[in-house]
Write a structure and sequence with these properties.
- The model has no long low-confidence stretch (mean pLDDT 89).
- The longest helix is centred in the N-terminal third of the chain and has 36 residues.
- This protein has 2 domains: 37 residues, no CATH class; 233 residues, MetI-like (MetI-like fold).
- Strand 1 and strand 2 form a beta hairpin.
- The protein has a two-stranded antiparallel ribbon.
- It is mainly alpha-helical and 313 residues long.
Length: 313
């Protein structure tokens, strides 16, 4: 009774907050997130708005900018290099998305088994993901070198000297060489996502299938793959968006050559902006690429999600 009276008396004697204290209490949550908001504003929103302004200007970075309206966007239809770059991007996307998804799924299923040293294998397979693009590009450029590269020297040692092209200097092999590098760089990332999905599948389903006499392949096709559909959608979407925005590997290894055989959209934007100093046109190309990636990603998600719903029905 005495305790309740003391609590009641303390409530009645508590002084009301001043306006300044109330304002400080209301602003405190926003002050905690203010540094992150300022960084997002400085490095995301401001460049986004600045790019829109730049896309309607003709500016080389030195002379005074000139307002040209939508001329930079109209210029794309007469750009003879843009079409092949777009085609190269789709080729690159097709090769890397299929390659990474299939390889990552295969390795995830394999590593998900009870294997001796499984932790070591997971770490070793994930290692290329944490390597920098510069290191990966230089490393594979050495491997692909037609004179002293390991790949051609190994082929010569096996008596296959006729199969030793200039991997990065031949227009027929350069793009596929870059695709292999991209697959090697990122398959570990997608493998980890598949592993997380595999560990959510109940083991009882495989036990029941085994009792029914289902083979490993039937278990994978009828249990594993259907239950991994959402994970497949995630991996395909991530790899597709990365492939359409790729810049680093083509820039480091070939700079778009030979004869523009590995020139992709992001690299074409860089060349237009910082080699030809067409900053306004480069900004317009960037927003065209943003629109293209967004539309393709949304269509791909819708189509795969619709296929998943149909399979469940």
């Amino acid at each position: 009774m005495a305790n309740s009276l003391s609590v009641a008396s303390s409530k009645t004697t508590r002084k009301p907050l001043s306006n300044r204290a109330r304002l400080w209490r209301a602003l405190t949550p926003y002050l905690w997130v203010a540094p992150a908001l300022l960084l997002y504003l400085a490095f995301k929103l401001m460049p986004l708005v600045g790019g829109v302004v730049l896309s309607v200007l003709r500016w080389d970075g030195i002379a005074n900018p000139v307002f040209v309206g939508l001329q930079n966007f109209e210029r794309m239809f007469g750009d003879e290099t843009l079409g092949p770059a777009l085609l190269n991007n789709f080729k690159y996307a097709l090769g890397t998305v299929v390659g990474k998804t299939v390889l990552a799924l295969f390795l995830a299923v394999l590593i998900n088994q009870e294997l001796r040293g499984r932790g070591f294998y997971r770490t070793a397979l994930f290692l290329p993901v944490v390597m920098s693009f510069v290191v990966v590009g230089i490393l594979w450029s050495w491997l692909y070198n037609d004179q002293f590269g390991l790949i051609n020297n190994l082929l010569r040692a096996l008596g296959l000297g006729a199969l030793t092209p200039d991997w990065l200097g031949n227009a027929g092999t350069a793009m596929w060489s870059l695709i292999i590098v991209d697959i090697w760089k990122w398959y570990g990332f997608h493998m980890v996502i598949f592993l997380a999905g595999l560990q959510t599948i109940p083991a009882e389903l495989y036990d029941a299938a085994l009792v029914d006499g289902a083979s490993r392949w039937r278990q994978f096709w009828n249990i594993t793959l259907p239950l991994l559909r959402p994970i497949v959608i995630v991996n395909v979407t991530l790899s597709l968006m990365g492939a359409l925005n790729v810049f680093d590997i083509p820039y480091i290894m070939t700079e778009g050559g030979p004869a523009n055989a590995t020139n992709v959209l992001a690299l074409h934007i860089y060349i237009q902006s910082f080699k030809f100093y067409r900053l306004g046109y480069g900004a317009a190309l960037s927003y065209a690429l943003l629109l293209l990636v967004s539309v393709i990603a949304l269509l791909q998600i819708r189509l795969m999600a619709r296929g998943s719903d149909g399979a469940e029905d």
